[in-house]
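seq:
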Amino acid sequence: MADHPLACPACADPFLPDDVNVGTNVAFCRACSKAHVLSALAGAPTPSPVVVFADPEQERLSRLVAQVDTTRPPDGAWVRDDGIETVVGASMRSIGGAIALTFACLFWNGIVSVFVLVAIAGSLHHAGLSVPSWFPAPNMNSSGGSPMSLGMVLFLWVFLIPFLLVGSVLIASVFCMLAGRVEVTIRDNVGRVFTGIGSIGWSRRFDVSLVKAVDLAEKRWRDSDGDPAHKQQIVIDAGKPLRFGSMLTEERKVFVTAALRKVLVG
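struct:
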């Protein structure tokens, strides 16, 4: 290897000595910002697929995954294999996260609930039913004192739909932080990704034979205010990417990624 320096297969530039890490089995090319499995470049058996990094944070995550001992799951994560099916999973339980989300949930839904009560009051009025005295039912026309028109009531309900959906997601997220889990079940040639609480949740299936890679990816975007935001997701490339696990702690995400990579890719 000393007589023939390793070169990046993407851009043909040689790797710098400081960018070749035998311990983590990674060689990083600064010229094109790509990293590769070192043993694959050296001609040795490849323990995991080539991973392409978009930035140093992606490189850090890949190094963490490469260093995981899958026989020693961290607290809140597990691997079960009974000879018939293999289950890799982790708990979403996080007291700190649940407390933070609870405050956000109460703040958001507290504000939205005022407008919901106004919409309910308007709906009851136009249905010919009496409105309870504690319902906030302001007059939309302060000079004439007339109640909210039917068109305004319908508009308010339509306007509230996205806010109600966000509030519902926040409530579900709080419960997930208290008792949720993420599990990937592999049986025969069928895989299933489950996210939820108990038997209630969201399931997605994939063909195990189509899996090309399992990675922990850093997703970046800008929010509605233009501020940068990011989250880590486990990605199973099985023809189309399956993304999940963003609510897990980083330690659990890293372990689940490594365990799935061992089971699905080898």
